[in-house]
Specification:
The structure is a homotetramer.
Chain A lengths: L2 H16 L6 H8 L3 H7 L3 H24 L5 H18 L1 H9 L6 H27 L9 H18 L8 H15 L3
The first copy, chain A, binds a DNA duplex through helix 3.
Chain lengths: 188, 188, 188, 188
Amino acid sequence: MTVPERLISAATELFAAKGFDRVAVQEIVDRAGVTKGAMYHYFGSKDDLLHEIYGSVLRMQTERLEKIAAGDGPVVERLHAAASDVIVTSIDNFDQAKVYFRSADHLAEDKRLAMRSERRRYHERFRALVEEGQAAGVFRADVPADVTVHYYFGAVHHLATWYSPDGVLSAEDVGRHYADLLVGSLRP
Amino acid sequence: MTVPERLISAATELFAAKGFDRVAVQEIVDRAGVTKGAMYHYFGSKDDLLHEIYGSVLRMQTERLEKIAAGDGPVVERLHAAASDVIVTSIDNFDQAKVYFRSADHLAEDKRLAMRSERRRYHERFRALVEEGQAAGVFRADVPADVTVHYYFGAVHHLATWYSPDGVLSAEDVGRHYADLLVGSLRP
Amino acid sequence: MTVPERLISAATELFAAKGFDRVAVQEIVDRAGVTKGAMYHYFGSKDDLLHEIYGSVLRMQTERLEKIAAGDGPVVERLHAAASDVIVTSIDNFDQAKVYFRSADHLAEDKRLAMRSERRRYHERFRALVEEGQAAGVFRADVPADVTVHYYFGAVHHLATWYSPDGVLSAEDVGRHYADLLVGSLRP
Amino acid sequence: MTVPERLISAATELFAAKGFDRVAVQEIVDRAGVTKGAMYHYFGSKDDLLHEIYGSVLRMQTERLEKIAAGDGPVVERLHAAASDVIVTSIDNFDQAKVYFRSADHLAEDKRLAMRSERRRYHERFRALVEEGQAAGVFRADVPADVTVHYYFGAVHHLATWYSPDGVLSAEDVGRHYADLLVGSLRP
DNA sequence: CATGAATGAGTCTTCATTCAT
DNA sequence: TATGAATGAAGACTCATTCAT
C-alpha cells in the first residue's frame, strides 16, 4: 500500500468513526505511519482528504446507477435494482459511505460547489427513473418524484446511523427490504 | 426573554446553521448579547446547551406520538397521522430539529447514553404501531417493522438537508406526501 | 504595567532586534510573562502588534512635525528644526523607530494601505516646507522637492542600521549634523 | 542560461519583491523550472543564494568606486561621479540592489561577518573621498565624514522603497540630483 | 546531475473553560 | 448574578533540508 493510500484509508476509518471535525491530522498520520509533512506532500489540506473519499463513493455509485438505469427491463425492476444496489454498495464500503453521508457540509466553499453538482446529477438520474414509471402509469403520480427521491435517500443516508455489519441483517437483506418499501410505496 | 432563553435561542440558530463543532461559545454569547461568564453561570458547558435543545425536540415529539398512537381510529390512520405529525412539527421547529437530526454524536459519553434510551423509546412506540398493523393484517409483514421504522426516520432526518421553508412545499404538503409514501409502502 | 503594555514593549524590543518575521509569538509572550491566549485576548494577530507600534511612532512624529512646520520663524529655521527633531525623537525611541523603519512591508494588505496614506501625509507636510523655501527663493529649485524629501528620509531610516546609543554621538549631535547637511544641500 | 543562473535570477526577483523570509525555496525552484534537489546540488542553503546575490552587487559597486576614486580630476568631481554612479548602477540592477539593501541582517552569523567587512571597506573608500575634500578645504569639516557617508548611504538604500523605473525620473536624473545634494551639502 | 518523497521542528491561531472581582 | 481577563492544550499548516534512487 502506498503512502497516499494508507493516508486515505486511515482518514476514512477515523472520519467514519468520529466525524471530520473530531479527527486531528496528527491522528491520521499516526495511524498511517507517516509524518504530517508527508501528508501535506500528497494532499493540500485536511479537506482534500475528505474530498477524495467523497469523490470515490460518489463516482462509484453514479456509475452503477447509470448502468442499471440504462438497462432494458421494466422500469419497476430497474428502480428496484437501483434502490437495492445503492444500499448494498454503501454497506460494502461502509466507512466510506458513512463519511460521505455525514460530512457533506464540512467541505470548504469551492469544493462544496463542485461536489454539489455531481450530487445533483445522481439525484436527477434517480428521479428520472421514478418519473419514467409515473409517465408509464405504473407509479403513483400524486407524490412528486422529487419528494420521493429525497425520501428514499434520507433512508439510505440514515443507514450510517443504525446499521451494523455484525447484526442479523445482511447488506442484501436491507437492500431488498428498502427497495421493496420504495417500490411498494409507488404502487398507484 | 430571559438570559438563558436568549442563549438557547442563539445556540439553536448557530448550531443549525453551522453544526455544533463549528460554533464557538463566543459567537453564541455575542448573539445572545451576554458574556461568557453569564453562559457558564446558567449552563455547565457547551454540551449542556446542545443537550437542552435536543431534549426539547425529543420530549415534544415523544408526547405527541404517544397521544396520536393512543387514539382510537384504525391503525392505518393513526400511523398516517403520526408519520405526518413528526414532519410538520420538525419543520415548524426547523432549527431545533436540524440540531437534533445532525448533532446526535457530538454529545459527551454520559449524556449520549441518556439520550439514546429516550430515543429508543420513541422508536419503539412507532414500531409498535407498525407491528399492530401487521398483526391486524393491514400491513405487509415481509419487511421487519424495525427496518421500516429506520427507513422512515431516515427520510425524516434527511429533511434538514434538503427542505427549505421558502420553497413551494408547505410543512403539511411534505407531511402528507411522506405519510402517504410510508403507508403506501406498507400495503400488503 | 498592564498586560497589553508589557506585550507591546516586549514585541517592540524583539522586532527591533530581529525583525518581524524572525520573532515568534511565543517569544513575545514569554518575555511579557503571559500566555499566548492572553495575547490573542488583546490583539487580533501578530500583525496587530506591529501595527500598534507603527502607529505610535508615526502619530508622534506627525504631530511634532505639524507643530514645528506651523511655527513662525524663517523657513530655513523651521526646516532645520523639523529635520533635527525627527532624528532626535527617533533615537529617543530607538526600538520603536527601528521597527517602524524596517518592517513597513510586513503588514497585511488592509493595514498596509491605511498606514501608507498616513505616511504620505507626513511626507507631504515635509515636502511643503521645502517647497515653501523654494518659492521664497532661499532653497535651490533645480532638485525636485519630492526627491529631496525621499533623500532625507532615506538618511533617517538608515539610522536604524548604523547608529548606536552607546557611541560618541548623542541624538542631538546626529540631529544637528543631519539637519545641517540637509539645509546646506538646499542652499541655492 | 545555466541552472544555477536561473536559480539566482529567480531568487533575485522573489527576494526583491517579497523579502527573504517571505520566499519559500519551493517558489524559487518552481520559477527556475527545476526541483529542490537541483538547488541543493548547486547551493548549500537558501542563505547561500542570498549571499551570492549580495556579493555580486557589492563587488561590482566596490570595483567601480575604486576606479572612480582613483581618477585624477578634482575631488569634488570625483565625489560627484561616485555618488551618482552608485545610484545609476543600483537602479540598473534594481532587483539585486533591493535585495542587497533590504536583506542585510538575514544572513547567518558566519556569512554576515564576511559581508560586513567588505561593506566596511566600501564605506571607508567613500569616506576617504570626503576626507580628502575636507583636507583640501573644499568640503565643510564641521560634520564628521563618517556621518556624512552614513547619511548618503541611507538615501541610497532608501531608493528601494520609493523609486520606480516606470516613473518620470531616469536613473541618471536621480543620480544627478542625489549627487548634487550631497556635494551641495558639503560646501563650506 | 537530478528527482521528489519524507522529515521534524516550528508557525500562528483558536477555543472551552476558570476565576478573582 | 455577571464580568472579562487569562489559561493551556490542541489545532492546521509550512518549510528548509536530507537522502535513497
